[in-house]
Specification:
The protein has 139 residues and is of the alpha+beta class. The chain has helices at 92-107, 117-137, and strands spanning 15-16, 22-27, 30-39, 43-47, 57-64, 67-78, 82-89. Helix content is 27%, strand content 37%. The longest helix is centred in the C-terminal third of the chain and has 21 residues, at 117-137. The chain is globular.
């Protein structure tokens, strides 16, 4: 049974990025291009060949239908070829532009729907298996 109390974490609606859109990531003056995978008002995920260290700070530039979005980000724990990030700070103009772009993408049917219990359990099982694999291989 799902909790509805104050400790329940509500996630911002996400959109899947359909057309291999690129994100330019600037880390200490070095620019890298990565494919944007998912996006929400709180952050997103990019496809990576070599993951960034968790908590690495960077700047990301995204081209959206509402104009360029440039923001500070912090990378989250790397996954299997995909790495999440969170926006550290969005000024009002950038946030408004990003919200407009996300809304337009949701209207185009790119938003993620509610996840089923089976999908949630599968995702947890994948993370547990990856963690066990990493412990065995010493990663």
């Amino acid at each position: 049974m799902a909790s509805s109390g104050p400790n329940r974490r509500n996630r911002a609606p996400r959109v899947k990025i359909p057309n291999r859109e690129n994100a330019v990531i600037d880390i200490g003056g070095k620019q890298l291009t990565s494919e944007l995978f998912k996006l929400s008002i709180n952050g997103g995920a990019v496809r990576v060949i070599k993951p960034f260290r968790e908590s690495t700070l960077a700047e990301i530039t995204l081209q959206t239908t509402s104009g360029n979005t440039v923001a500070a980000i912090q990378f989250l724990r790397p996954g299997d070829g995909v790495q999440g990030f969170r926006f550290v700070q969005l000024d009002l103009a950038t946030r408004t532009r990003l919200e407009a772009a996300l809304e337009q993408m949701r209207k185009q049917g790119l938003g993620e729907g509610q996840r089923s219990v089976l999908q949630l359990c599968t995702n947890v099982a994948r993370r547990v298996m990856q963690k066990a694999k990493n412990q065995v291989t010493g990663v």
